[in-house]
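Quick entry, no commentary yet.
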Amino acid sequence: MTVFVFIVLGLVVLLLGYGITLYNNLVALKHRVAQAWSNIDVLLKQRHEELPKLVTTCKEYMQYEQTTLERVINARNQVSNAAASGDLPALGVAETALRKGLGQLFALAENYPDLKANDSFRHLQARISELENGIADRRELYNDVVNQNNIRIEQFPDVLVANFFHFGARELLEFSEEETADVDIARLFQS
């Protein structure tokens, strides 16, 4: 009888240890998702701070392109609001509008040789392009971690622990199809 009790006690301890390990792994994954989002948020804020400088520099040269400049500023504000509220679908739409506006702004800058020669403009253009690449890289990492999280909380036996402790699925950060479509360069030069 005592051997049976020890076996049952051993199995209970093993199951409890396994459950704790599953829980700890899910907690670590939840925090990796938060960290990945935080990394994106840092770059969004940095870009948010650089865009007014770019628009101010462009305004000095691009008197006839006010609608394009306003579009960039409006999209910047939409990105900021969506990021602050954590609304990933709205962030994807706002990011698409901002990237489209920046693409048009940089394409229109080709028509202004003095602007293209301006050191401040070139520096800001390079800095914003660098931030755009960083955001794209971080978005990929974020989506990878979110995907890992969503898979883990649906797999057995993790689903038991996830449901018991209310671990939830996270949304992927996706941009619209327009964002990933081929760019029509000729259209960018029309305005």
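second:
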Amino acid sequence: MSAFPARQGVCTVSVCRDCCCGTEKVPGVDHAAQLAGLTDALDGVCRVRVTDCLDVCEQANAVVVQPSPQGRRAGGRPVWLGLVNDPAAAQDITAWVRAGGPGIAPPPAVLELYAISPPNRPGGR
């Protein structure tokens, strides 16, 4: 896997893996293969990181695509995706991120089906 701490110009894909996402709560999904597929397909393109609970358990498996600095300057904002349980959804995310991600490339229309709102968190977190 590539080392990205020194590279600041890339997107970040955060994959939730905690109490619900990545567990038997979502049966029939090979969670390890999903994570490995994203990590392998995006190696050298962006950071893929595993995060604790994103507080959208009803939308397991959740993925957040955060724009690169260039994408943010172009108006891109983090995109929250839920119910990412189909290999095709992970492939669509991969294709979009490889094209530049938020602010740089429009997401495939099919990802609109997975778009969710971030949780409301007290204190504006």
